[in-house]
Amino acid sequence: MRGVQIAVLAMTALSCTSGVHAWGAVGHTIVANIAYSFLTSDSISKLTSLGVSTTTFSTTSTSSSIGVWADQVKSQSAYSWSKVLHYSDAGDNPPTSCSYSYSRDCADGKCVVGAIGNYTSRVCSSSVSNAQKAEAVKFLAHFFGDITQPLHICGKLTGGNDQSVTYDGSSTNLHSIWDTQMVESRMSDAYSNSLSTYVSSLVTAIKTGKYASVANGWASCTSSGTTCPEQWAADSDKLDCSVVWTSNVGSADLSGSYYNTAAPYIDQQLAKGGYRLGVWLNRILNSCTASPSATTTKTSTVTKTTTSTKTPAASTFPFAVGTSCSGSSRYCKSSVADGTGIPF
After folding, report:
1. CB of 102 within 8 A of CB of 230?
2. What is the C-alpha to C-alpha distance for residues 286 and 46, in angstroms, rounded to an integer?
3. Contact, 167 vs 177, CB < 8 A?
4. What single string gives the DSSP state of each residue in 81-150?
5. Closest-CA residue to 233 (of 82, 67, 102)
């Protein structure tokens, strides 16, 4: 029975106020834990010097995980500007056609692809404080999970939020079951309902198991700016055609054969998000000085790309604080206005 999972979902119902929690708290905590397994000792030391507690990566507490932080704060007025950074609506039409283009789908840079590019550049920037660098790490820890959730790279029916479905006998929507219910079902069915067991299994699969031969390819992109996250977004978007938007999405109970088909892809995407995050942080932090600080004169070797024409300067990213959440757009996208002084 998955009734307990349905109850959990009801308590985290999608709304304009709370926004959508990609992968849900469980999924994001799994991503952070996997990343921790691949952090080097040098990276851990540098994160600590920035003020980032690495126990927030390794904790199995979903309320304390660094992977969940960005979802916890985005409903606060001080972070309302960040709501649009959790997704990027691909202008395609699954299951007929799937493609992602940063220049087409995120022209203003205010999306998860632009966010990863921007926060990457801030981690070792000499122009921001350690507190801001630590915050950049927190955002990255979350957005690496978001970008692997296929429906966060999908514009159809507001990323599936407006696609009604039935799951385990209850009415919900397609985005919800990919965020939370199917992840929790997977943890219950295959991993003894244990988050630590789920994490351990995926880490082993990456190191020596079924993902060992392909994992390096997941994190092979080393370009700066938005080049890599654009590739990762396109990778996730392909699943919208091949797995997510099947012909029976709106007619059958999706806790049966649909879930069984989706389950291995859920594992794969969580593993991708965690492994990429760990490798990416190692690369960024390796470019920092031994003790990163706001006064260091060494600049990061991870810089804005000069080959992409769609990587806005950091100063173009700020959003207004305290914008009211009104309207029906996904995450109140249409209600967010440009502002000044708030570094994205």
Report:
1. yes
2. 9
3. yes
4. GGGGGG------BTTTB----HHHH-TTS-SHHHHHHHHHHHHT-TTS-HHHHHHHHHHHHHHHHHTTSG
5. 102
List, in sequence order, the alpha helices (H) in the chain. 3-11, 24-37, 41-50, 55-58, 69-73, 102-105, 112-123, 130-146, 174-176, 182-190, 195-207, 215-218, 227-239, 257-286
Which tokens hold the place of 137?
């790490």
Tell me the residue type at 270: L
Cβ neighbours for 217, distance < 8 A, ≥ 6 positions apart? none
Cα(114)–Cα(229) distance, rounded to whole angstroms?
8
What would you report as the CA-atom Rg of the chain, rounded to the nearest whole angstrom?
19
**Which whole-number Å values give the CA distances from 325 to 26, 49, 63, 156, in the listed order?**
26, 36, 24, 21
Which DSSP state fits 299?
A: P
Is the pTM higher than 0.90? The answer reads no
Amino acid code (one letter) for 336: V
Exposed, middle or buried, 111 (CB in 10 Å: 0-12/13-18/19+)?
Answer: buried
Each residue of 223-281: pLDDT tens digit?
989 999 999 999 999 999 999 999 889 999 999 999 999 999 999 999 999 999 999 99
Which has the closest alpha carbon to 338: 95, 81, 53? 81
Q: What's at 67, amino acid-wise? A: G
Structure tokens that stand for 258 in this block: 């649909």
For residue range 303-315, what is the model confidence (pLDDT) as tens digits? 333 333 333 333 2
